[in-house]
Amino acid sequence: MELRILDKEFELFISENDINYALDRLALEILEKIGSDKLTFICVLKGSFMFCADLMKRLPAQVCVEFVFAKSYEGLRSTGNVRLSRIHKKTLQGRHVIIVEDVVDSGLTVNALAKELDTPDVTSLSVCTLLFKPNAYRGKIKIDFVGFEIPNYFVVGYGLDYYGEGRGLRSIYKIKT
Ligand code: IMP
Ligand code: MG
């Protein structure tokens, strides 16, 4: 399966089916390791909206969600700095907090967020990402839950975009080189 977005060609990389298996597995891992009691997801917008929603559907109804906007990418690459929207930390008091990312690349975003959220008020802080690019990762914190480890490909679909397009695709596509 091939597809064109703006000036770039993409090919199928991770199917909808494989994403669904990964979602089932991640939900079980979270339940085993953390449980669902006093659990809050931090959905990192925009990219994680679909992943976070589908993951929540697999967990008990008491799981809460908060949203944060983060921007570090411009087109195909990281700008090297990250802009975060304000986080209402009051709602995180006494909670197990999981940062839910679409993809961890350089790690800039997730490390900046973790620094913001790592307060004594938070019971535990962990990171769950659908995609992880270990060869690009420069961060310090541990990535606790990983859907897929992938090479340094640029990918779109299932929340991930190229200049805003491609987010609604059910599967993940990688750029053709
Ligand atoms: P990091 O801060 O370098 O780890 O990048 C994280 C953010 O960059 C993600 O949340 C995405 O919004 C964006 N990003 C990183 N890699 C890709 C990609 O391959 N496709 C689309 N967006 C990406
Ligand atoms: Mg993005």
Characterization of this structure:
The protein has 177 residues and is an alpha/beta fold. The chain is 20% helix and 37% strand. It has 3 helices and 10 strands. It has helices at residues 16-33, 49-56, 108-117, and strands at residues 2-5, 8-14, 39-45, 64-74, 77-84, 96-104, 124-132, 145-149, 155-156, 172-175. The strands form 2 sheets. The protein has a 6-stranded mixed β-sheet, with helices on both faces. Strands 1-2-10-9 form a 4-stranded antiparallel β-sheet. It is globular. The model has no long low-confidence stretch (mean pLDDT 95). The structure holds inosinic acid and magnesium ion (MG). Residues 47, 73, 161 line the site of magnesium ion.
Compile the SSE list and pairings.
Layout: E1 2-5, E2 8-14, H1 16-33, E3 39-45, H2 49-56, E4 64-74, E5 77-84, E6 96-104, H3 108-117, E7 124-132, E8 145-149, E9 155-156, E10 172-175
Parallel strand pairs: 3-4, 3-6, 6-7, 7-8
Antiparallel strand pairs: 1-2, 2-10, 4-5, 9-10
Helix pairs in contact: 1-2
The structure holds inosinic acid and magnesium ion.
Derived from helix and strand composition plus strand pairing, the structural class reads: alpha/beta
Report how far apart the termini are: 15 Å
The distinct ligands, each listed once, are: inosinic acid, magnesium ion
Order of strands, widest sheet: 5-4-3-6-7-8
Helix content: 10-25%
Percent strand: 35-45%
From the spread of the alpha carbons, the general shape counts as globular
| Number of H/I helices | 3
Quick take:
This protein is α/β, with parallel strands linked by helices and 177 residues long. The chain has helices at residues 16-33, 49-56, 108-117, and strands at 2-5, 8-14, 39-45, 64-74, 77-84, 96-104, 124-132, 145-149, 155-156, 172-175. It has a 6-stranded mixed beta sheet with strand order 5-4-3-6-7-8, with helices on both faces. Strands 1-2-10-9 form a 4-stranded antiparallel beta sheet.
